[in-house]
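Our consortium's second objective concerns turning raw sequence data into structural hypotheses that experimental partners can test. To show how far this objective has progressed, the report includes one record in full. It was chosen at random from the queue rather than selected for favorable results. The single chain below, 134 residues long, was entered without modification.
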Amino acid sequence: MTSCCPAPEAAPRAALCRVDDIPDGGSLRVDLEAQPLILLRRGAAVWGYLNRCPHFSVTLDAAHGAVLTYEGQVLMCAHHSALFRFEDGLCIEGPCQGAALDPQPLRIEAGSVYAADSKPRSALARLGPRSSDK
């Protein structure tokens, strides 16, 4: 005898941070499922990238975890001084010029930053019962 049950919904992930946790024109280092990310913010816009420089695959942050930004426009690799644009992660100066950072799709909801493929914790309550629960 076999039984068919609906697959349980994946547990929603917590927010990576609040938008206001990222300094305007600056950066914040966070982890997504043990994967280090760099979040960048300019005004209401937020971008996310894996914390990995395309030049030798080293982290972008310094030993103490700080990621340097310049005039709210570019971030700088602490190891090679490569400069990357906020908007697309493209290296505009340095040893990996023309390469780009690996983007992490994000979404903003109610002032919080989430990985784009996650649901906020409150989403399950808003969804209501599944049709199979009726």
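The partners drew two points from this record. The domain at 22-114 is CATH 2.102.10.10 (Rieske Iron-sulfur Protein). The chain has a mean pLDDT of 84. Both points have been shared with the crystallography group to help prioritize constructs.
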